[in-house]
Amino acid sequence: MRKCSRPPQDGRRICSSDEQRGERGEHGAPGEGEDIPEGCPGMENEQAGKSKICEGCPNRKICNDPELKKEKEKEKNQIFNQVQENLKNIKYKILVLSGKGGVGKSTVATQLAFSLSYLNYDVGLLDIDICGPSIPVLTKTVNCDVNYSMNGWVPIYKNNLSIMSVGYLLPNFDDPVIWRGPKKNGLIKQFLCDVYWKSLDFLIIDTPPGTSDEHLTICSYLKNNLDGCIIVTTPHILSICDVKKEIEFCKKTNIPILGIIENMYQSVFVSNYTVDKMCAEMKVDYAGRITFNQKLIDACQHGVGCCDLDVHSSSSKEIFQLCKFFIQKILQNCLHVPASSDEKNQLAHSMKSPNCHDTEETLQQNGEPHQSASSQVQMLCQLLNQISQLVEENPQ
C-alpha cells in the first residue's frame, strides 16, 4: 500500500470495480447510465421519460420529474462554476484526442508537455483516460503518491511539470478500472474541481481514444473555456478513417481544432490516402509529423522528453516545431485574428518577428485592446521566439 491518497467523495482509496462498492444513483435509483436502453434521449431532452424508448427504463420517473430536472440543471451549473474557479489561474487548456487507440496519443501529450516545461513554463498534464492511464508510465511516476491538502489533491511534480492520473489512486497500478460512465465522470469532475494546480501556463489533457462519456463530460465542464484540441493519428489507413470521426465530433461540440499530428511516421507505412490529404479534405490544419525512431523510444522508456535526452536530436526538433505550430494557432484563435487576408498576413509576419512589441502593435491596429494583448501575447511571443531559436540551432 502506498501513502494515503484521497479518492472521490470519501477518505478511502478508489475501488477498481463498480460492483465492489454496489453503488446506486440518487433517490435509490440505479446510477445514471445503468440499464439505460439504446437510443435514450437523455434527461435534458424534451422527450425524456415520455418517449416510447423510455418504456421499461428504471429511470423513467426520474427523467420525467420537472423538479428533479431543475435540480440537476442547478447542480450542473454549480459544478461548472466550481471548475471555472479552480482552473482560473491556468492560461491555456488543450485536449489531446485520437480516433482510435494505439496511435501514440499519450506519448504526444507527454512529449509536448515535457517540451514546454523544458523551456521553463509551468505545465500541467491531466490524464482522463480512466480505464487505460498511460501518463504515469510515460513520465516514470508509477510509484508516486497523490496526497490531499487543505487546497485539494496535490499533483505529482516532476520539475515544473504537474501530473495527475487515476493511476496514482489505485491500490495497484496494474488493477483494471471497471467503471460505468457516471463513476468515470465523477472522477473527471474531481480532477477538474479538486486538484490544486496552482498557476499554470498550459494544461494538457490526455483523453481516451474515440468519442465517449469522458469527452462529453470534459466538454460540458469546460464549455467555451477550452483553447483547442490536438488530434493524433498514424499514417495507417484505418487510423486516418477513424480520425475523421473525431474531427466531426469536435465540429459538432464546437471544440476548436488546432491541428492534426501524424505520429509514428515511417515512409514504409505511407498509403495513397495520406494524412495531409485527409486534412485538406476535412478542412483542418495538418500540424506536422513525429518520426518513429530510437530517440523517441528511449525518451519514453526513461520517462523524459526527447529534449531532455538530446535537445539537438531530430525528434526534439519535430516536437518543438509542433509546439510552435500550436502556439501560433492559439495566438490567432485567442486574440481574434481579423478575417481580412491582408491583416492575417500582417499578423503572421509580426508573429515571426523577434520583438513581441511588433505583434502587440499589429493587434492594437486591428482593434485588439492593449490590456488583453499585453501579458498573454508577450508570453506566447516569447515562447515562439525560444522555440524558433532552438529549432534554428538544431539542424536535422
Secondary structure layout plus pairing:
Layout: H1 18-21, H2 60-63, H3 66-86, E1 90-98, H4 105-118, E2 123-127, H5 135-138, E3 147-149, E4 152-154, E5 156-158, E6 161-165, H6 181-194, E7 200-206, H7 213-222, E8 228-233, H8 237-252, E9 257-265, H9 275-282, E10 286-291, H10 294-302, H11 306-309, H12 314-334, H13 341-351, H14 356-365, H15 370-393
Helix pairs in contact: 3-6, 4-12, 6-7, 12-15, 13-14, 14-15
Count of strand segments: 10
Radius of gyration: 22 Å
Give the uncertain stretches in residue-range form: 1-12, 19-34, 337-341, 368-373
Q: What's the CATH architecture name of the largest domain?
A: 3-Layer(aba) Sandwich
Main sheet: strands, sense, barrel: 8 strands, mixed
CATH class of the largest domain, anyone?
Alpha Beta
CATH topology of the largest domain: Rossmann fold
Q: What is the H/E string?
A: HHHEHEHEEEEHEHEHEHEHHHHHH
Q: What gap, in angstroms, lies between the N and C termini? A: 47 Å
Coarse structural class: alpha/beta
Describe this structure as you would to a colleague.
With 396 residues, the protein is α/β, with parallel strands linked by helices. The chain has 3 domains: 47-86; 89-292, P-loop containing nucleotide triphosphate hydrolases (Rossmann fold, 3-Layer(aba) Sandwich); 341-393. Helix content is 44%, strand content 14%. The protein has 15 helices and 10 strands. The protein has helices at 18-21, 60-63, 66-86, 105-118, 135-138, 181-194, 213-222, 237-252, 275-282, 294-302, 306-309, 314-334, 341-351, 356-365, 370-393; strands at residues 90-98, 123-127, 147-149, 152-154, 156-158, 161-165, 200-206, 228-233, 257-265, 286-291. An 8-stranded mixed β-sheet has the order 5-6-2-7-1-8-9-10, sandwiched between helices. α12 (314-334) runs antiparallel to α15, α13 (341-351) packs antiparallel against α14 (356-365) and α14 crosses α15 (370-393). Residues 1-12, 19-34, 337-341 and 368-373 have low confidence and may be disordered.
